[in-house]
Model the fold of this input.
Amino acid sequence: MHPRPLYVRGRPLADGRLPAVCAPLVARTHAALVAETRAVAAKQPDLLEWRVDFFGAIGDLSQVVAAAKAVREAAGGIPILFTRRAQREGGQPIALDEGQVVVMYAEVIASGAIDLVDYEMDNDALQLARVRDLVHGAALPLVLSFHDFQSTPSTEQLIARFAQAHAQRADVAKVAVMPHSMEDVLRLLGATLEASERFPIPVISMAMGGLGAVSRVCGGAFGSALTFAVGAAASAPGQMPIEDVQAALAVLRRASSG
Done:
């Protein structure tokens, strides 16, 4: 396997080691978001994800852009992934239609405050194309994602999701699923390994919930370029504290290099 790390502004996250560690930001107010960013950045994740669907003022573009700039300043140089997670894929309910979401993406991208963008691969094809053009026009990486909070699809369906992201000209393909058995977790990891070898872009995968916790630590060994860990508050089931994930990854890396 040839590791495919995420590149941000020309440099690989985590010095190219898999997986890099991303911590979510989920505060609801500007002041709380700044405080959360500072606290989480102090724990030195490789990436911060601002989940803007948690932001109470998401309907006010000027407040969203101001918050994005404040996160950038508080992050201390840690790159920022900007994500509005759709409600159907586990996101918070928001009072914006998809056209307004795309306008928000355009404004935040234009602000220069973010480094990567996440958008669901199952969004309307025209909206997805608009977002892709905005992201690539700013020379930023686009993560196209798929989340199944109910089950773990078959190996063929999982591979098809990674293939879909690649066909849609993603720079990174992300798949997250909910396992109901360790066989589900094993299937997700196997599909990740196959996708990482088949497609010329980085892949990200995780099995959520308690059963999937092992995938958040060992996913990198199967080709997953990123794992998500809790800095202050979780954004999905099964995320572990960043200190625990960093410690576990350090043990694995020492053992594998020995």
